[in-house]
Amino acid sequence: MADANLAFGTLLLLIFPLALLALLALIVRPRPVKIPLKNRHVFITGGSSGIGLALAHAAAAAESARVSILARSLDKLEEARDSIRLATGIEAAIYAADVRDFDAVKKAVDSAGPIDVLIVNQGVFFAGELEKQELSEVRFMIDVNLLGSFNVVKAALPGMKSRSDRRPVSIALMSSQAGQVGVYGYTAYSASKFGLRGMAEALQHEVIADDIHVSLIFPPDTETPGLAEETKTRPPLTSIIAASSGAMKADEVARKCFDGIKLGSFFVPCNFEGAMLAIATAGLAPQRSPLMAFVEVVAIGLMRVVALFFQWNWYGSITKFASKNK
Fold first, then answer.
1. In 66-186, which residue ranges form alpha helices assigned H by DSSP?
2. Which pTM was predicted?
3. Active site residues
């Protein structure tokens, strides 16, 4: 009898995961997709430096894509164009515009022509406690990071929907690990990046019938000129908490981005911590991969425990710091 019960239990242990995986394969939406990049038009905002420039290099070098980059500074754009040409032999098109100005963005997008992969990458960041931060800085971050993303997507959508090439296309929004979890000193920045998730989830509903696929990218601290400046002024507690996730190089982030974009992944984490956060915060986000959906279902309880340990550690650091500086 004991042997029969053991055999039955073993059978259940084998059947349940397979049955769950089969169910998830039936219900995951949107369906899996492959988005080709080879010889297609990749349009990148914030493309004159940092992650944006690394994305432009990767698109030109690895995918032989037609690359367009948009940023505010024409001088920086010209330098970026020269570096892309020297490294890849491809001449990138450049457009100087402020993403806060819809008319200027629309003019640039229309001049660039039909876009196959739109990467909304621009971003600004000032670390600081809300009580001490100027409201002008708060508005600037929200205007550039969030409202600027609406301007770029709204400008590009008509052309992406009316394209003659009916292969699947992509809109990728550059969030941040600070768009997955709030961090001390990132009050305004996190708000601007968390907002992109709501935008991305609703936008995917609106454009899926046109074979347009939305990705939300979550880079950690990335070794860019912007990070070098930001770390000079960030609050000490922000540095303590941010140290739990190491910095990545911009070209590594670019590779992760394109890996996710080509698979149409909705969440695109860039490192192990980002992948854990993606599981812990999956919620009602779309999921294309039955295997990844299986991991989310099985691991989400454990990830909640891990998250609580992180919060225990962070709040401990905050309490200790506050007691020392009273």
1. 74-88, 102-112, 135-141, 148-161
2. 0.94
3. 175, 189, 193
